[in-house]
Amino acid sequence: MIKQLTNLRRIGRIKWLSVLLAIAGGLLFVGVSIIPAIAQTQGDLTIDFATTQPGVQSMSGFLYGVEQDEPPDHLIEPLQPRLWRTSRLNLYPRLTGFGATFQLLLSDTWGYGRPRGWPYDDYTRWENHVRNLAREHKGKKMLWDIWNEPDLRDPFWHGTRQQFFETYKRAYRVLREELGPDVIIGGPSITKYDKGFLTAFLNYCRDNNLEVNSLSWHELNDQTINAIAPHIRDANQSFRQNPAYRSLKIQRLDVNEIIGPTAQYRPAENLAYLYYTEQGGASAAAKACWEPKGGGPNNCFNKSLDGLVQPGPFAPRAVWWVYKAYSDGFSTRVRTQGNNPRVIGLASQSNGQNQAQVLFGYFEQGPSARQATVTLTLRNLQQLGLGQPGQPLNLTISRIPDSGEAVVKDLAIVKRQQITVTNQIVRLTVPNIRIHEAYILTIG
């Protein structure tokens, strides 16, 4: 089954990649003759260390990416994963041990056309499969994700939309019967935020007395990253908070695959996905996995943690450092405001080492300058209680390079500075930030 999943996910990702590239190529073709090259851009980030952001949910999460012992724990624990989407039930103890919510990808336990056929070929057989799994794993606390990308005909769904709805209904009723009223069941885990599909799905569920406790979809278009937050807010308003759908008992909005193929190794783009998904108010997210640049097994199945680490020697790549810094700071998030949607930042009162932190970067979205100058305005540093009164604070900026699959064992420090805080505002200008790169400012 795993070999089949590897091949199917490769086919599915290639086909989905071709769609994304066609969209991006069309945009570039239209823009070639009318948009001049942009050499430099400017972005301002204002951080108020006195204004906390309570209730922030971490978007650190993964799709497959590991085996029983690899990658080693010391490369996973610092990332503090909150969601793990997989069909590998034998990994349940390890993944939940990291603090992650286990999301069972039910369709991967069944297969896509072979060897069992499709659920609509024999609904009774599908129900029996779901029932057997539910009984075998009744004691495990997990989210049940019924089917993967039913809007992508090849390879994940060959039936009609109505047949998918029926497939969900059959699985839902079995799970509710076997596991009771508290088990979290969800979907439809479609390839993008398609409001028409979601509306039709939820209307069907409402009309058939079904629940959708976890409403899920994927965000994989690297050219529309900043649309993610509006999508989540729209889903919250249109569905989760809409009295018309109260009977569905929607508890969660899970973007259970984020980050497309072009962005998979780019630090700033990874940060942008985390930023906009968090800002939208999603319950959780999981990093998607794609083909390595040189070919070989999909990053879902080569023990690379979805591409964050090098397989084999198990050493971190640049994007691993983005996830680490993101996870270091999410529990003490403070307000950050910016004036350029491509220049994004997430700030925290503490990174766990008694240092305030700002994680920021400059990512590509349409025609973009190759570099940016970023001005950081730091407010209310005195309220952090760092150091002794009257003593200087140490500011350190480290660069997370756009280095693809290369190993990055340590981050290069690009600036060190001591400041004495004499008022409530400190301004710091960071010039020549390269597109796709991210930076970490620590204050302590």
UniProtKB/TrEMBL annotation:
GO molecular function: hydrolase activity, acting on glycosyl bonds
Transmembrane segments: 16-39
Keywords assigned by UniProt, alphabetized: Glycosidase, Hydrolase, Membrane, Transmembrane, Transmembrane helix
Pfam families tied to this protein: Glyco_hydro_39
Domain Glycosyl hydrolases family 39 N-terminal catalytic: 121-224
Protein family per UniProt: Belongs to the glycosyl hydrolase 39 family.
Organism from which the protein derives: Limnospira maxima CS-328
Name the record gives this protein: Glycosyl hydrolases family 39 N-terminal catalytic domain-containing protein
Superkingdom, taxonomy of origin: Bacteria
